[in-house]
């Protein structure tokens, strides 16, 4: 299906070479300040043609709000968003009439639907993510105003080159995650906040581009000021929802939260996050190997996770492969494609994170509202031990 979310729900539409792409967003709270200018910055960060490290396809990706707002304010009704496709060249994909591209979705889409888009990847194209980014910008607008939530993703690895290992030096990693901003992420075309590492990563991307090849990488994301208590205890644990969201992004191949796979090499005596009293009197943790989530529910610490992106499937090199009818052949794809998708994936990761947090906030708000509707005299009879406020003898 093409919808994501429960209460805050986005449905995307459009293919890579149709008239345009966009989304319908339902569940947006009424009274939220919102104009195209609040959405456009993230779409501009995602758009193609923004640097020498990305596809040269020249799309401005200017968004129009079609419904759901009046005088720059949301009405609580479905919001329709549209972005036209302008610089599309369907003729660049004539080879795919004969060959399913290796590691692309041409063959699997054909098997699923019995037909496929004759130009580009159709719904498997990254152009589909425009609707996600637009909807994510709306979610971020609410989360920032209502809760001060900050979501920052950045490039932490390209091919063999990477920043500091987030688990090898946990203290240094937490300081880094606490301080990184979108401004220093966007200070270079790789979108890596470490200038020295960014220079090394850029050389890897340029080498792949010049060889008509592609390379993958890793995006790290941190979410700050997250309300406590988000996420459900069983199937919809917050990390499960984040994994679902991230693995739905094109070209993703792996996801890990907190210490991730590296945490398997750390004994529990070091991996556990001890509770401490914060300056404001609330509980926090002295370390954060959990990545801000325990038992599937947010604990108030920063959430951090990583997403792995594979090399782009469409490359300009000749590849020995087979035609749709099984005949051996050689495919040399045309078209305009990213040598590395990671720099442009940054706002997509942020958008999907925002959609997950927004939906979880609205679910938790509904629960709180239901509790508060119970008369106070009834609620006061609840034993203290059921609220976790029993004093030790």
TrEMBL record:
Needed co-factor(s): FMNH2
GO cellular component: cytosol
Region annotation Disordered: where it falls in the sequence: 34-61
InterPro entries with a match to the protein in the record: Chorismate_synth, Chorismate_synth_AroC_sf, Chorismate_synthase_CS
Protein name per the record: Chorismate synthase
Subunit structure: Homotetramer.
Similarity remark: Belongs to the chorismate synthase family.
Organism per entry: Catenaria anguillulae PL171
